[in-house]
Structures are given as C-alpha cells and as structure tokens.
Amino acid sequence: MANRTVRVDYIARVEGESSLELHVRNGAVDRVRLSIFEPPRFFEALLRGRGFGEVLDIVARICGICPIAYQMSGVHAIEDALGIQVDEPIRGLRRLLYCGEWIQSHALHIVMLHAPDFLGYPDAIAMAREHGEAVQRGLALKKTGNELLRVLGGREIHPINARVGGFYRVPGRAELAPLAEALKHARDQAIETLRWTASFSFPEFVRDYEFVALRHTDEYPMNAGRIVSSAGLDIAAVDYETEFIERQMPYSTALHSALKERGAYLVGPMARYALNRDRLPVEIRALADEVGLEPMCRNPFRSILIRGIEVVYACDEALRLIAGYQPPPRPFVPPEPRAAVGYACTEAPRGVLYHRYRLDGEGTILEASIVPPTAQNQGVIEGDLRDVATASLDLDDHALQASCEQSIRNHDPCISCAAHFLKFQLHRT
Amino acid sequence: MARRARPRLAVWKFASCDGCQLSLLDCEDELLAVAGALDIAYFVEASRRMFRGPYDLSLVEGSITTPADAERILRVRRLSRHLVTIGACATSGGIQALRNFADVREFAAAVYPHPEYLKTLATSTPIGAHVRVDFELRGCPIEKGQLLEVIKAFLIGRKPSIPAHTVCHECKLRGTVCVMVAQGTPCLGPVTQTGCGAICPAYSRGCYGCFGPAESPNTAAIAREFSALGMAQRDIARIFRTFNAAAEAFRKESEAHGE
C-alpha cells in the first residue's frame, strides 16, 4: 500500500481531453500531474491577418460551451482599440446575453457534470433514474439559458449576432417578453436546484486561495470592472500582462498562469463571489445565507452552491434587464479602423478571460493574445489534487480516483479552451 | 424471446471546440428519451462509464491534426458499425485547417515558446480523409434537430433525411428579405448548404458559410457579385476561408483571390 499509482487516462465530465496521474511513495503523495492532450489549434496564430470584423466569429470557435465569453472579451478589446463607446441599451443586451451563457453553462455543470459526483453516479442519465425530477429541472433551467442565447444571438452554440459596435440586429421589446415568462419559472427552478445541492454532503476541505475576479463600481461583474484579488491586487485590463505571467512547469509542457509576485491563484465563481458578494442584491445574499454559504467560501467542493447562487442571480438580472429595456437608436456604432492595441477582461462562466489585439490602420489583426480561465486555474487545480489525495490516502484506489476526479471537476475546467494556449504532453506510461 | 439489447452509441472527440457534442446535451427535451432508446456507451464529456466497444453508432467530432489522432480514428472505425461525422471540423477540417494554407511550424512558434515539443501535423484534415464515413452532418455547429434526425434514422436503419438545398432557398422559404439585394451586404447564402435555418440574413447579416459549400456551388459567380459590391480581393479570399476553408469549392475560390 505504501507505493501506488493512480492513473486516469481520460477524465470524464469535463470539456476536453486531459489525464491525471498520481504517484504515492512511502505513504505520501509524491507527484501529481494533470496532463492536457487536447490537440492545439493555434488560434492566436490564425487570427493574424484577419479583419477585426471577423474576430468574434472566429474566437467563438475556441469553445462551444462558452462562445459568448470569447465574443464579449473580443468585442470589448477591439472596441478599446478603436475607441468605441456603445449605446447604453447595447451594454444591457450584452449583459443579458452573458446571463444566458451563465445560466446554461452553470446548469450544465451543476446537474449534468458535478452533481453525479456527490450522489455516486457515473453520469446524470444514470442519476435520473432515482433523481429524475432534479435532472429534468436542471435541463429545463439550461434550456431557458439557451433560449436567451437563441433569441439574442440567433442560436445557442456559436451565436451570430454580436458585432464590433453593437449587434447586427437588436430585438424589440415584444421579442423579449416571452423570455421574461420563461425566466420567472427558471428562477424558481434555480432556487430549487440550489436547495437540492445544499442537501449534498461536502468533504471538510479548505485551501487558502488568492481569489482573482473583476470588480465593478455597482454591478456583480460580467463585462466590465477592474481586476482585483483577495491579496489587494487592483489593476485595469491594460496592466494584465505586467502582473500575470505564464510559467512553464519543469515536469510538464503545460503553461500555468501565475501572479508574478505570489504564484497560483483562482478565478471563477468562487473568486467572483468572494470578492463581489456585496454587489449581489439583498435577496440573493439572503438565499446564500439560507443554504449556509459562508461569505468567503474556501472549500472548492462547495463551489456547486456558488454556481447555484449565480444562476438565481443571472435569472433575476435578466428579468431586470428585460423590464428596463428600450431598443437603442441604432443597432451598432459604425467602427472606424485605426492602428492601435486594445485590452479587455470579462467574466466567463469559469472566470476571468483576457484578450489583447494589435490592429493596423486598415483593421487587420497583427497580434492576438488570449488567456482563458482554465489556463489560469491549472496551478490551483493541481494544488487541490495534492491536498485532496493526501487527505484521501486511506481510501482504496477506486475511491481515491473518484475523489481526485471530483476535485478536478470542482473547478469546471474547460480543456478545449485551455489547450490552445498550453504546451501539452501526451503522458501515458 | 430474449429482449434485444439497445444499440450502443459512442461520441468521440478529435480537434474541436466541444460544441457539436454539446448539441446532444442541448437536446434538453429529448436527451432522456435518446438515452432510453440507445445505450450511451461512450461519451466522455457526459459520463465516467466508458464501455470498450464495439458500438452500433459512433458520432465523431473534430478533425485530425496529430499523428496520435490519425491512429486513433482507425481504431474508432474498427469499433463502429456506423460512423457519422458531426460538424465542420470532422467534415471539412474546421477553422484549424487554416494551417493548411500556412506553415504550421510558424503557427506553432507564434503561440508556443517551445514548438519543438508539439506533435502536430502540417494539415487539419476531415475524418473522411482517413476512414470510410457513413454519413457527414454539416455545420459549425451542427443543428440539433438534424442530429436527432440522424440518430433516429440510424436507429431504424434508413437514410437520414437532411435537406441539401442552399441557405438562399431557405431565406425564400422563411420570407427573409435578401440582404444582398436590399442592403448590398455580401452573403454566401447562394453557395452554402442549408441546415442552420438561414439565421444570419434574418439577423441582418450575410451568411458566412458555416455549413460549407452546397452541391455544385457557383462560387465564381458569387465572387464576381462581391467584387461588384466593392469588396476587396483580400476580403473575398477571407470570406471563403473560415470554418470550411478546406472544403474543396471554398478552398479553390479563396485561392483564386488570395495571395
């Protein structure tokens, strides 16, 4: 028992291809490796030479789960370069679009990918045999998020309506009314889902993360805000690359993002909530209190509750935006190309997503840089794995593997996103 | 009489964004019924249960871009009674096939500090360039109604009923005003296969060809129209060179206008 190896060749219920290897020597965790074997697709290279108007369609294809995040970071970075200020209703519609993506992505993770770990099923379909109502409710919730994307974006995956300066076409008030009806039901389903997940049993496990998220003067962050951290960082997107580096670990060809000063950090729902709880409406905070969610949660297994809180909030926020919506005077501000560099961060469902573009005077992309949330969380995920494995060494291999996998899924990693920016190594011994 | 086992479904991923396999999970109203009719035996994005095969129907997402994947697809084919490609990557090579027009070593060096660690192929190729494919479902992403039709068709052993007309026809069926005629917006609708439902023109923009070339497309004629609308040669090359850049008709037309 003193020396053993746990190997998972292909980690299930995450987006993309990764494997895990854990070596135990003399009764202690010796080595943990999360390897990415997703093939690289070279987005930053193939964006060069494209027109700025093509960027949103191209970067959406980095990730089928969170295309809006790529389109939003992309559009804000290009508008930053071109000096475009959008009309207020456009800002509202973009936030509404993001609400749709948060709802569908979080509902997918909570019910289909993460909950089966807590209840001991291989997948949500097997779980549905005994928890049919909860699975149906989660699917209905996800459907409403997708419905928002379909109406505003044209379709759920790789939506087509966002453009530099605004939208190709903006909806009338009447088009949004049926969404409001669906969202009222979704809000109830989100609260029931949250209460259901609160009944799960959570391992006692706490880590001392540095949380990094956007922070806005009065909103829970989605499209705008400064980059702040629980250790006092407070910068604009333009300074991202001076504070954060991508570091190559000696044992792996994967690049990990790190804070230059302090190393590994965490982005995503746990960080957003820890740093922005005071930006949530009082009734959402009351709901968090009701399900026992502490104001600064450091137990990654409980991230499922925070995603649940964010889904309820996204439903409320979408309802508020629809109620206050007045169509803008024009669907978009016409962009004028100029030679410039633009920067933006937005809050993807999985956390801070950074984009930078350098354009020439005709609007052609000369250089692109993209740092997705999962690349930033890799260091923390491996740290979690080491601690979870250390605490679970008395389990048999099967149970130890299950708890390691769960600890990866706690952070909802999106390997498809990460791989295009990471060194990868096919590691099978 | 022994109860007949449910047909086994497998879902495979090669170089891709996960969006096309997500389309199956996006069938919120039908997913549990699909899982009742089929045994979802291998679908890593959704389940820890990984049945080794063989499978009655394999859905394959993504293109072939690494030596390891070029081997793996052969094994997938051997294990599969029917193999259906889902999406532009699997069917034409996807956006990552832009490397086919460039030097992949230069691409790798632009993104990675140590490109020598990468085991990557010079081209991104569709599944059909490597193994026999029983049906190709188009789209970036695929349309989930079409995905359900394909699954149904294979379940009962008939040919999938997937329309092959153009996006341009689809606009006429929808009653969408032509963006090219009315607004002078370049649109690939006349040369692109339908399936999306002609979404882009309904949102006041031109089709950008994400379902790939229709049968016998007259790309030269539409390129002449784009020129007449004032589009630069460079932009005509770009419009044919996106998510189905390596599909033959689009590749040839982009090369006629490219550098």
Provide an overview of this structure.
The complex is a heterodimer of chains A (about 425) and B (about 260). Chain A is an alpha+beta fold. Chain A has one domain (about 40-395): Cytochrome-c3 Hydrogenase, chain B, CATH 1.10.645.10. Chain A is built from 14 helices and 13 strands. Chain A has helices spanning about 45, 55-60, 65-80, 90-120, 125-130, 130-155, 175-200, 240-245, 270-275, 280-290, 305-325, 375-390, 395-410, 415-420, and strands at about 5-10, 20-25, 30-35, 160-165, 165, 210-215, 225-230, 235, 245-250, 255-260, 340-350, 350-360, 365-370. In chain A, strands 1-2-3 form a three-stranded antiparallel β-sheet, with helices on one face. In chain A, strands 6-7-8 form a three-stranded antiparallel β-sheet. In chain A, helix 4 (about 90-120) packs antiparallel against helix 6 and helix 12 (about 375-390) packs antiparallel against helix 13. The radius of gyration of chain A is 21 Å and the shape is globular. Chain A starts with a strand and ends in a 10-residue tail after the last helix. Chain B has about 260 residues and is of the alpha/beta class. Chain B folds into two domains: about 10-155, Rossmann fold (3-Layer(aba) Sandwich); about 165-255, no CATH class. In chain B, helix 3 links the parallel strand 3 and strand 4. The longest helix of chain B has 13 residues, at about 65-80. Chain B is globular and about 60 Å long. The interface between A and B is large, with 69 and 65 residues.
